[in-house]
Amino acid sequence: MARRRQVYEGKAKILFEGPEPGTLVQYFKDDATAFNNQKKGTITGKGVLNNRISEYLMTRLNEIGVPTHFIRRLNMREQLVREVEIVPLEVVVRNVAAGSLATRLGIQEGTRLPRSIIEYYYKNDQLGDPMVSEEHITCFGWASTQDLDDMVSLALRVNDFLTGLFLGVGITLVDFKLEFGRLWENEDMRIVLADEISPDNCRLWDLKTGEKMDKDRFRKDLGKVEEGYQEVARRLGILPEAGVRDMKGPETVQ
User: Fold this and answer.
1) Cα atoms in the 13 Å half-sphere on the side-chain side of 78
2) pLDDT (tens digit, 9 = 90+) per residue, 32-58?
3) Are residues 108 and 148 in the same domain?
4) Cβ(133)–Cβ(120) under 8 Å?
5) Count of domains for the chain
6) Quick one: which of 218, 234, 88, 212 has its CA closest to 148?
7) Which runs of consecutive H residues, i.e. helices, occur in the chain?
C-alpha cells in the first residue's frame, strides 16, 4: 500500500492526504469507544461494514440533492472525501426517546416523540461533548446563524429520507448524530454533510422486535455486536460478498 501522510486520527477513523488537492482518504477502523472514550474495545469487521453502509447512505443522499463530502469508496476500508473545515458541533436528531434524552428527562426508552427534536453538542472530548444551545454556538463563534439554519435544514431532510429508507427494510431510526463541514470553493462557502452515517452514530432498532442493531450492543454489553452491524448491511443489500474479513492497516508517514 502506498505510503501517505496522516492528517488526523479519531476514535473510529484515520484521515490521510488524498491523491488530489482538496481531497482526503478516510480509513475506517475496527476500534470502538463509548461513554466519552471511557469504554474501549474492538468490533471485528466494523470498519469494513461502516465503510459500505456509509457509502450507500451518502450516495443515496447525494442523489436527492443533499450535499456531502463523500466522493467514492476506494476499497474495503477506505473512501475518498472532500476536505472540509469541520464545524465543531454534533447535531443529534431524535425521533424516539433513548439514550441520554430518556435519562435526562425521565422518559421511558422507546417512547415515540411528538415531533423530531434537534440537539447540539460541542465537539470536545476533554469536556465530554457537552450539550449547548444556539446562543452558545453563535456567542462563541462555532457557527453562524446562517450555518445553523443550513445544518438544521439538511438534518431534517436527512432524517425524512433515512427514516423512510430504514422503515422500508424493517428498521426504526431512533436517533442519529451528524457532523457538518464548510466546503470552500474559491471565495464561496457552503455547508455539507461530513463524517459518516453508520450504526456507530445511529440508533437502529428492529421494527417488530425492538432489537438493537447498533453500537448500543457494545455500550450495554448486549453481545452479538458484529451481528447487529452485519444485519443492518444485509437488510440494505450491501453486505460484502466475501463476508467481513480483516485487512492490513494502512502505512503512514508522520
Assistant:
1) 20
2) 888 776 788 888 899 999 999 999 999
3) yes
4) yes
5) 2
6) 88
7) 46-63, 99-105, 134-139, 145-167, 216-219, 225-236
